[in-house]
Amino acid sequence: MMKTLFEKIIAREIPATIAYEDDLVLAFRDNKPQAPTHVLIIPKKPIPRIAEAAPEDHKILGHLLLKAAEVAKSLGVSQSGFRLVFNNGPAAGEAVPHLHCHIIGGRQLGWPPG
After folding, report:
1. Which of 34, 41, 56, 90 lies 20 to 30 angstroms, CA to CA, from 47?
2. Distance between CA atoms of 114 and 42, rounded to whole angstroms?
3. Tens of pLDDT along 54-82?
């Protein structure tokens, strides 16, 4: 099976600007940012998308959300506000089939999104 782009980033086969890393997750700057702050946080375990997460993934998913808040704070967008976005499937804008959360901030974000 071929590695996804994100698995190659985790393996350091493709360079990325790392914002945070621990044993379970990796956060890095998006290469096509949609806002002044746009970071992706991904589980190191390859989970294709949120709809395919298993009950035993709850620890990783909870950890990912808590670390997303910490990363947002470290990037200086916690006070002004930030958005967490998960895309599930191609029709939702998913480009890489590896669960990832966009941390977006640094500007006024419109509603509804998309």
Report:
1. 34
2. 22
3. 999 999 999 999 999 999 999 999 999 99
- Cα angle for residues 49, 50, 51 (degrees, 5° grid): 90
CA quadruple 48, 52, 55, 58: dihedral, nearest 10? 40
Please state which CATH class domain 5-105 belongs to: alpha beta
Question: How many other CB atoms are there within 10 angstroms of residue 99's CB atom?
Answer: 26
Residues annotated as catalytic are: 100
pLDDT of residue 2: 87
Burial zone of 9 (CB within 10 Å; 0-12 exposed, 13-18 middle, 19+ buried): buried
